[in-house]
Design brief:
With 394 residues, this protein is α/β, with parallel strands linked by helices. It contains 14 helices and 13 strands. Strands 1, 2, 3, 4, 5, 6, 7, 8 and 9 form a 9-stranded mixed sheet that branches. A 4-stranded mixed sheet has the order 10-11-12-13. Strand 8 and strand 9 form a beta hairpin. The longest helix is centred in the C-terminal third of the chain and has 28 residues.
């Protein structure tokens, strides 16, 4: 028995071939950012941002460029990704991609043909952020260097995630989210839109790292709306927060509420929950959105007395009235101007009243446009911090 085991062990040694697909580290280049623009001679211009490991390490950095940005044109994204070696000597690794930037011009023409490639490719993971480049080429965002993270895509990726967690200014859409929403019968997809603030040419220089006021900064600007795979328009940054609130995805945010014509007070929302009730009433969809939130008083103008009797109730009344108006304005705008259900209310209607949703199954736009939708906000002020009244400075 022992002889048989020994013989099998010896034979198995010759069958072990090691890592069949191994490659040396210096033969690979990690791609962290991809930009897609409209090409001049071909359908697409694809740009990649390949990092320099030595420049990202403080011990080995020599002040050189932290990444290389290179662009190639072609008619399919798949072919372009395998053609970069006409100029780059290393093998490109796309599995660590953090950011996909889509140019505004190509977004208006349609993005489904190249998004299909990213969805199919087995090397590219689905956890990268996707943004639309507003008033600029997508490749420009890969060229802007900054001191926080020298590589642009490695700076924008946490910037988007932190903005989502702390204020609710981005929809937090990854690849699978976009594909799922696009395939949905009761929702249209959205993406975050960004602008370059300042001189984009200077932003690509290493001098941008050596000043307290950078020459260029990539800024989260608005929300891009897509229908039929094409960019339709933009919503205000504040509307992104309302979208997340309706979808019950808002974690925390800060609000500035008008108290009267000259005074304001601030609330920090620390907990929120949204429930939606959808059904058919008198031949048309009726959807009620119930928003409950807990908040703390962050600050108030000196004319507002936080210590007076029923002060919190007064703050809550102003906040509820203001937010309900903001919610309903956005909903009406999406119903009348864009006829686009970015909230996913059609999905909820299908789940809660499928019998009546079936009549809108092939055209939820008509149902959404005709729907009676109302938002009901109940925000509670729990604390006022360490002080009741603001300083009475004359």
């Amino acid at each position: 028995m022992k002889c048989c085991l020994l013989s099998l062990s010896i034979i198995s040694i010759f069958l072990l071939t090691g890592c069949w697909d191994h490659s040396e580290l210096n033969q690979n280049a990690i791609v962290t950012g991809i930009a897609v623009d409209k090409g001049e001679d071909h359908k697409y211009k694809l740009s990649i941002e390949s990092t320099s490991a030595t420049e990202l390490n403080p011990r080995t950095a020599q002040g050189l460029a932290p990444a290389i940005v290179y662009s190639i044109e072609g008619d399919t994204v798949g072919e372009i990704t395998h053609k970069f070696n006409i100029a780059i000597s290393t093998h490109l690794v796309f599995s660590h991609t953090r950011l996909l930037v889509i140019g505004e011009e190509i977004a208006r023409e349609g993005i489904l043909s190249f998004m299909d490639y990213f969805d199919r490719d087995r090397e590219i993971r689905d956890d990268f952020n996707i943004v639309v480049a507003r008033d600029a080429q997508a490749v420009d965002f890969l060229r802007v260097v900054n001191d926080y993270q020298k590589v642009s895509s490695l700076k924008i990726f946490p910037q988007l995630d932190n903005m989502l967690k702390e204020w609710g200014g981005t929809p937090g859409i990854k690849l699978n989210d976009f594909i799922r929403t696009y395939a949905s019968q009761g929702q249209v997809p959205v993406l975050a839109a960004m602008k370059i603030l300042g001189d984009k040419e200077m932003g690509g220089s290493m001098d941008n790292l050596k000043t307290t006021v950078p020459a260029a900064v990539a800024k989260i600007d608005s929300l891009a709306i897509f229908k039929y795979g094409k960019l339709q328009g933009y919503l205000d940054l504040y509307d992104t927060r309302i979208l997340l609130w309706i979808q019950n995805k808002l974690e925390r945010t800060s609000l500035t509420i008008p108290y009267d014509d000259q005074n304001f007070f601030g609330l920090r929302v620390i907990h929120t929950q949204t429930k939606v009730k959808a059904r058919q009433v008198n031949g048309r969809p009726q959807i009620d959105i119930f928003v409950r939130a807990e908040s703390t008083l962050e600050g108030s103008d000196k004319g507002i007395k936080g210590a007076k009797v029923n002060a919190f109730e007064d703050f809550e009344e102003h906040a509820n009235s203001y937010l309900e108006k903001e919610f309903n304005q956005l909903i009406k705008k999406m119903q009348k101007e864009y006829v686009a259900d970015i909230f996913g209310l059609g999905e909820i209607f299908r789940d809660q009243d499928y019998k009546h949703f079936k009549q809108y199954e092939d055209d939820w736009d008509a149902g959404f446009k005709d729907a009676k939708i109302n938002a009901h906000v109940n925000i509670e002020v729990k604390r006022s911090g360490f002080r009741n009244n603001s300083y009475n400075i004359k």
